[in-house]
Specification:
This protein is α+β, with helices and mostly antiparallel strands. Helices cover about 45% and strands about 20% of the residues. The protein is rod-shaped, with a radius of gyration of 50 Å.
């Protein structure tokens, strides 16, 4: 604002100075209009009439002063220059002209007479670029007044804008984990800047997401604690009973029951660790992969308890972490086996630049209202289902997180019967679609591959593809991953 006032003041002073210069020039022309007829009529008085701030001299062709204003009486010619190149007049600034004090603007005007060329000199005070002291004082006063007015207006406007910001700050300071339901006040758009209103709405939206995330975390912690406590409680009951009657207890049977609880704890902890890594954004080991070959290899290694129908389109390439995508397929197959009646269909195809993996069972399916709930952590739709046969409640949540980490989606879509899980991943650029092939074979039934199921899952459970010590115990064949 100060620079703007300074600029306006300079422009004002330059304008005033220009007007003063024009006024001085006009005085010179006016004097010429008054004196030139007297020269023509040869009626020049010794002392010429003049205004207060101008000095006039008339010099004859011989260089003698023929007439002058009162302040130049008896003085020599104030100047000796003349207009050139056929001009009638010219102007110069002399500091000072002869017979005068200070700088003056002297105008020299030629008057053509029969006896020669007469010269009329008119001197007016030189006008500075700013015009006058009055103009400077006026510019300074106006600038100060404008600056004060604008400062007061800006201070009022800023105070008006800061007031709701202060209210937002005070409310945010009072929000803690125990009071996440609180929200900051949203000011009226007419009472403050629109940006402050948008800020308040954005803060409230952020608090909504934070409260929802905290509620999900609370429920997740509660569910995880319950799921971890259940096998621990069962194992303690078995051990307490055996220790109470050590001689009557069948210790191998007790060990088997306790081992089942340990296996369940291991499965839950492994899934929790996998979710933690996914939530932390662990990097993917992406590489171009034939999704059909990956699915076929997984199906070949799996011990199936039901018939598997393969519909695998060749050459469906995706850039993915092979281990994690295998885990998605394993989780979907485990879920399908728990709900199918007689057959599971695995389909891989390409569609409009997207690789699609489908796992379809012929069970009861999932109601449309529950199709998103099943992907929530520790969600089980059948409350009466035995927890061991129902898995950890984290498999589908892990599968969806892996899909999102690859830039894809995992959803449940409509099907004539059963649940149809559809995984969509970006296809490798430059790949071409080929005709899909449906390969249902009796060999896809039970006991197709000699690898034990617990060993195959142990490899996939480890994110680095390594079999950890202790996983090779055949007693773990009944574990659920």
């Amino acid at each position: 604002m100060a620079f703007m006032c300074l600029g306006l003041s300079l422009l004002f002073l330059m304008y005033v100075g220009g007007k003063e210069s024009d006024s001085a020039l006009q005085q010179g022309l006016s004097a010429w209009n008054d004196v030139e007829p007297l020269i023509q009529q040869e009626r020049l008085p010794p002392v010429l009439p003049h205004d207060f701030n101008e000095a006039i001299q008339v010099v004859d062709p011989r260089g003698n002063v023929a007439a002058a204003s009162s302040q130049l009486t008896g003085a020599p010619p104030m100047a000796t220059f003349h207009p050139t190149h056929g001009k009638l007049s010219t102007t110069k600034i002399l500091c000072p002209p002869a017979g005068l004090a200070g700088c003056s603007t002297v105008a020299s005007i030629n008057v053509d007479q029969p006896d020669g060329l007469w010269s009329l000199y008119v001197a007016t005070p030189t006008v500075p670029w700013y015009g006058s002291t009055t103009a400077v004082l006026l510019a300074i006063g106006t600038s100060l007044l404008m600056t004060a007015a604008v400062t007061a207006w800006v201070f009022r406007d800023i105070s008006k804008a800061v007031e709701p910001v202060s209210a937002i700050q005070r409310q945010l300071a009072d929000i803690t984990a125990a009071h996440l339901e609180h929200r900051v006040p949203v000011p009226d758009a007419y009472k403050t800047y629109e940006e402050v209103t948008v800020l308040a709405k954005t803060v409230n939206a952020t608090l909504d997401r934070l409260e929802a995330a905290y509620e999900r975390l609370r429920r997740f912690t509660s569910d995880a604690s319950h799921d971890l406590r259940s096998p621990i409680t069962a194992m303690r009951l078995h051990l307490d009973e055996a220790l109470a009657y050590p001689k009557e207890s069948d210790w191998p049977e007790v060990a088997t029951k306790v081992m089942a609880g340990v296996e369940r704890l291991q499965a839950i902890v492994t899934d929790l660790l996998a979710l933690a890594r996914l939530d932390a954004g662990a990097p993917l080991n992406g590489e171009p992969t034939d999704l059909s070959a990956l699915a076929a290899a997984e199906l070949d290694q799996r011990t199936h308890g039901t018939t598997i129908v393969r519909r695998l389109q060749k050459g469906v390439c995706v850039d993915c972490d092979r281990l994690r995508i295998s885990r998605v397929l394993v989780n979907l197959l485990d879920n399908a086996e728990r709900h199918t009646t007689s057959r599971i269909t695995v389909t891989v195809r390409a569609e409009n630049g997207t690789a699609i993996l489908e796992v379809l069972d012929d069970g009861d399916g999932v109601a449309a209202a529950d199709r998103e709930r099943v992907f929530e952590r520790f969600t089980r739709l059948d409350a009466a289902r035995d927890r061991d046969s129902g898995g950890t409640g984290l498999g589908l949540a892990i599968a969806r997180e892996i899909a999102h980490a690859h830039g894809g989606t995992l959803t449940i879509e409509d099907s004539p019967r059963g649940a149809r899980f559809v995984l969509r991943l970006p296809q490798c650029p430059g790949t071409r679609e080929t005709r899909s092939q449906t390969v249902p074979t009796p060999a896809d039934g039970p006991n197709r591959h000699p690898w034990p199921d617990w060993l195959r899952r142990a490899v996939i459970m480890n994110d680095r593809g390594q079999i950890t010590k202790g996983m090779l115990n055949p007693a773990r064949q009944q574990s659920r991953w």
